[in-house]
Design a protein that fits this description.
Blueprint: H1 2-72, H2 82-96, H3 101-116, H4 124-129, E1 131-132, E2 135-136, H5 140-143, H6 145-148, H7 153-163, E3 174-176, H8 183-192, E4 195-199, E5 202-205
Antiparallel strand pairs: 1-2, 3-5, 4-5
Length: 206
C-alpha cells in the first residue's frame, strides 16, 4: 500500500515537472518568436522607409534637373546682326539713358514692335534710321546723340531682356517725352494715336 502510494506520488511529480518544463519551453518559444517577429518587422519597416526616402530624393533630384534644363534651354527670341544690335543699343541709350532698366526695356520693345509691324521696316537699323516726309522717327539720329553715346551696362542688360522676349510695352509703337518734344509733334500724338500708359519721362502710344 505504501509502495503504491509512493509510486503514484512519483508519477504525479514527474507529470508535474514535465508539464512545467513544457510550459517553460512554450513561453521561451513565444518570447523568442515575438522578438524574431519584432526584429523582422523592424527590418522590413526600415527597408520601406529607406526605399521611400530614396524615392523622394530621386523625385526631388529629377525635378531639379528639369528646372535646370529649362533654365539652360532659355533661348533668344530675336537674333540680330551686329549692325542691328549696335543700333538698338545706341538708340536705347540715346532715348532712355536717364531711365531705369524698365524704361530702357520699353524703348527697346517699341523698336522691336516696329520691326514686327507691317507699318514699319523689317530691320532694327532701318526702323531706327527711318524718316517720314524728311522727319526722323527718332530724333537722336539727327542731333548726334545716337552716334556719340557710350552704352552703359544697364542698357546692355535691358536690351538683352528685350531680345530674350521680355515685353512690357502693351504693343506700343510710339513714345514721346512730352516735356521735351515739339508741341506740334505732341499734338499729333494726342490726335492720331491711342495713349497706352506713361513710364518715367515717356508716354507710350499705338
Amino acid at each position: 500500500m505504501y509502495k503504491r502510494s509512493l509510486t503514484k506520488l512519483l508519477l504525479m511529480s514527474m507529470i508535474f515537472m514535465t508539464s512545467w518544463i513544457c510550459l517553460k519551453e512554450l513561453k521561451l518559444n513565444r518570447v523568442a518568436a515575438t522578438q524574431a517577429f519584432r526584429m523582422e518587422y523592424l527590418t522590413a519597416t526600415q527597408e520601406e522607409d529607406k526605399k521611400s526616402f530614396l524615392e523622394v530624393v530621386a523625385c526631388v533630384a529629377s525635378g531639379q534637373r528639369v528646372v535646370d534644363y529649362e533654365v539652360l534651354e532659355k533661348t533668344m527670341k530675336y537674333h540680330l546682326s551686329a549692325q542691328d544690335h549696335d543700333a538698338l543699343l545706341r538708340i536705347v541709350e540715346a532715348e532712355a539713358g536717364g531711365e531705369d532698366s524698365d524704361g530702357k526695356l520699353l524703348v527697346a520693345n517699341v523698336v522691336l514692335n516696329r520691326v514686327n509691324s507691317e507699318k514699319f521696316p523689317d530691320t532694327v537699323t532701318e526702323v531706327v534710321m527711318q524718316k517720314e516726309q524728311g522727319v526722323a522717327q527718332f530724333s537722336p539720329t539727327v542731333d548726334g546723340r545716337f552716334q556719340n553715346v557710350t552704352v552703359s551696362q544697364s542698357t546692355y542688360e535691358a536690351v538683352e531682356r528685350a531680345l530674350y522676349g521680355e515685353d512690357i510695352s502693351q504693343g506700343a509703337l510710339y513714345f514721346c517725352a512730352r516735356e521735351k518734344a515739339d508741341s506740334t509733334k505732341v499734338k499729333w500724338f494726342d490726335q492720331k494715336l491711342t495713349k497706352l500708359f506713361s513710364y518715367g519721362n515717356h508716354e507710350f502710344f499705338m
